């Protein structure tokens, strides 16, 4: 991943975190690393553990932020969540997968970081 994409992803994760905090979730982990990859955010909403995938897009050229989550990505997220649960939590904790999409309005494929992005939060995404 190049530096520009990495910075965009980190920026999107900060926006998503602020949004989730405003909604009352409590952030437990940021960028939790497993052998299979990284979980963007792990949060608590009450007694429910929430695994959050954040997707940030600057144009609609290749689809929306939310459309970018493939079947393979979902499988990988499930595997990473299982690793987290085995390492970090007590048995039988309720959990779910959420997706936060950070999408700029498409203006010819150019990034417009000065504009306010559209934030879409899908609870129980899969």
Can you offer a commentary on this structure?
Helix content is 30%, strand content 33%. It has two helices and five strands. The chain has a five-stranded mixed beta sheet with strand order 1-2-3-4-5. The protein is globular and about 45 Å long.
**Helix and strand string, N-terminal first?**
HEEEHEE
CATH class: Alpha Beta
Strand order of the largest sheet: 1-2-3-4-5
Tell me the overall shape.
Answer: globular
Return residue spans where pLDDT drops below 50 for at least 5 consecutive residues.
Answer: none
Helix share, percent? 25-40%
Based on secondary structure, the structural category is alpha+beta
Largest sheet: 5 strands, mixed
> Alpha-carbon distance between the termini?
26 Å
Tell me how many strands there are: 5
Write the CATH architecture name.
3-Layer(aba) Sandwich
Total number of helical segments?
2
Provide mean pLDDT, rounded: 87
> What share of residues are in beta strands?
25-35%
């Amino acid at each position: 991943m190049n530096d520009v994409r990495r910075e965009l992803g980190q920026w999107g994760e900060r926006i998503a975190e602020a949004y989730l905090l405003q909604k009352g979730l409590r952030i437990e982990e940021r960028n939790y690393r497993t052998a299979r990859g990284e979980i963007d955010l792990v949060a608590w909403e009450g007694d429910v553990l929430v695994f959050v995938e954040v997707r940030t897009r600057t144009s609609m050229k290749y689809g929306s932020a939310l459309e970018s989550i493939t079947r393979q990505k979902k499988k990988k997220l499930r595997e990473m969540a299982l690793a987290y649960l085995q390492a970090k939590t007590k048995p039988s904790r309720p959990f779910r997968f959420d997706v936060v999409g950070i999408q700029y309005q498409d203006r010819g494929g150019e990034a417009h970081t000065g504009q306010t992005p559209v934030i879409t939060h899908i609870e129980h995404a899969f």
